[in-house]
Each structure stands twice: as structure tokens, then as C-alpha cells.
Amino acid sequence: MNLGTFRPAFLPDLTYFWQMAQCNVAVFTDHLPFSKGTSVNRSAVFPDAQTILRVPILHNKNRKRIFETEIDYHSGWAAKHLKTLHHFFHNLPFAYYYLPELEELFNTRFLSLGDFLFALQQKLVRWLYLPVRMFRASQSEFDFSAEDLIDLWANRTHCRTYMSQAETFEKGWVKPKALQEKGITPAIFTPIPNSHLLKNYRSAVILNFLLQFGPEAGFIIQQYLPPAKEA
Asked: pTM above 0.85?
């Protein structure tokens, strides 16, 4: 059983979900401080390689965590975003299937950015048929070290392997030795293979891939996943 932690991201790219597909459990780290100018409220790039959407937030002198950060609904951002989505994707084969649900979600008022991103992520994971259980770090104790937080969720979900990017371990954001002392095996995500089917989508917003392939999108991801390792 593999556990991964994922920073909330607004309309991330295919790589984000490729990594999530390698996990049995994904912990949505909305307990982290909100960082301006990051993927937390900025989308991955659109097919024109230039367009990026941003969810505006209400600024507060006190630095808040993602689950406490409020969206600025006075800016009319949702209507502008939906117009952009229709512009880029209305001709894709499965636009009719997904865009109406996105419109409903974008037009719903959420109490916080964390609530909105988690609802959006749940919808995308469901559309991709990824067999991963999702949890929010903010809905439990979270004032721990990274290793203790991972240990908490690993014990709750019966996972004994923690998966992340190599950079996470190399930069010391999570210490492999500390995990091993807790009986958790650190592991690195397998990168997306250099497949013609995937490489053109890996860095673009996930909707480009999803609305092109529809319900098959998630099965394409799983087709290329490395085989599960025996315990």
C-alpha cells in the first residue's frame, strides 16, 4: 500500500495525476501555508503554451494556510475561466460530457480555496477512474514534522511505503532515514514514460488530456503504470 502527499493545485498537469495514480492513498496537504504565485491557485499551461488561469484570493496580512485562504468572488473570475475553458476545449470529443459539471463547480461558492481545490480534485480523480483514496490533512492533527505527519496517515490507512519525487528527499523536505525508523519505506515516483501518447500531454493542463480521451484517459494512465511491487 503506497501513500503520497500532494500539495493542492488548481487544474494541474498530467504528471500530477500520473504520480497520484501510483498511490493507494493521497493526502491533500491543505494545511500548508498559502504561497502566492504557485500552482496552488495557478493552473498548468494551456495548449497554446502561454495561457495560465489564476484563482484570485482575498489578501490578509496574517499568513494563512490553504484551507483558511478565501477566494475573491468579487472579481468575476469563474465566468472568465469558463469562457477560456470553452474557447480551448469546446471542440474536443468529450467537452460536452465534462464542461457542464465544471461550470456547475466553478459557479459554486466555497468557504475556502482548500474546499474548492479538494472538490475539483475529487471530480478529476473520479473522471480519471483512479483507484486512490483521498484525505485532507487539515481535517486531522497536522502540527507535526513532515515525517510524523506521513507516519500518522500511514498508520491510519495501513500504508507502509511513502512515495514522492526525488527532489523531496534530496532537499531534505522529508528525511528517508526518519521514515525508515518508523517502518515506512521511502520510494520515488516512476516518471512518465516517453510514450507518444503521453509525452504531448505531460506538462499541459489535465483537461487537455481528459477531454480528448474521455473515460479512457484514466485507463491509458494505468496501462503505462509500472507493475505493483510485492511486499
From this structure: yes
